[in-house]
Amino acid sequence: MGLNVIDVVVGILLQGGNQENGLPVLHSGNGGGSFLLAQRPDGKSYAGYWEFPGGKVEQGETLLQALQRELCEELGIEIVTAYPWLARSYNYAHGKVRLNFFRVTSWQGWLHGKENQSLSWQTTYGLTVSPVLPANEFIFRALQLPSLYAISNAAELGSELFLERLQDALGNGLKLVQVREPGYSREAMRQLSMDVVKMAHRYGAQVLINSDSELAKEVQADGVHMTGSQLDACQSRPDFPLCAVSCHSIEDIRRASRLGLDFVVLSPVLPTRSHPGAAHLGWNRFAQMAESSAIPVYALGGLYSEDMKIAWQHGAHGIAMLRHAW
Length: 326
Prior knowledge:
Elements (H helix, E strand, L loop, with lengths): L4 E11 L10 E3 L5 E6 L10 E2 L2 E3 L6 H13 L2 E15 L2 E14 L10 E4 L14 H7 L4 E4 L2 H4 L1 H13 L4 E4 L6 H17 L3 E5 L2 H6 L4 E4 L1 H6 L8 E6 L2 H9 L4 E4 L15 H9 L6 E4 L7 H6 L4 E4 L5
Parallel strand pairs: 1-7, 9-10, 9-16, 10-11, 11-12, 12-13, 13-14, 14-15, 15-16
Antiparallel strand pairs: 1-3, 1-5, 2-7, 3-4, 3-8, 6-7
């Protein structure tokens, strides 16, 4: 007999600054700082474990309604802004749990543990509490990913101008870059990749090389970004700190998740200059494909930085840009 599936909503409260457990009446953040963990109180299963706040979805509730209720009951706050993010299943002894994660970036009320649970603001680069509920551990890695994923455009700009603009972007906080130049020879790709990796690492940014694992190792990049055809042939996760893939279907996303990849790029969302007249997903279809993803999904195709919020609203982790990143 199969395990019962229990729908659970989980709120990842994000803040950008250093504050006490007691928060102002209205708080807004961009997710660039810390997140809230709560300790399960005595009398509950897994008592003493730390987790993201949330709870079971009751009959007749939407996911967002359930999250509103749970955070009010547990923390005494009212959600102002929450973005759908990931959905992931986990098998506990008492049943199969489907965790529906939201990133909560603003709320009203005085945040406190209404169930006498301890609260702690944490960062992904140095947890100071333990143990953590097993189902939430994978989230810490996903939270390290920035909202913007920039794709190189050296062929169009010229390598010198591209590197100048890359340095400007890195100085302005860019943290994730893909080197992708399909028209370049391998030697030209090698030289550009070496330049990008050297510059990015000075700024604490990470670099993925498109489709070429050997080149990624050679230039000491942080990871590889696979093509869809490489995903079809892939039997195990490549041996890199970061692994991503370009996807065009729900099955692509599911396969990437099964392989344990870090994130996917789903495209094209909107019409693009490079493929005029080609079919595109649109935001509604993008949301349908992203809503069941267990790993972060970046939106790509015809997007500008101003599209970040609409991407979040439709379940994207962030946006990927080529021309418009530079």
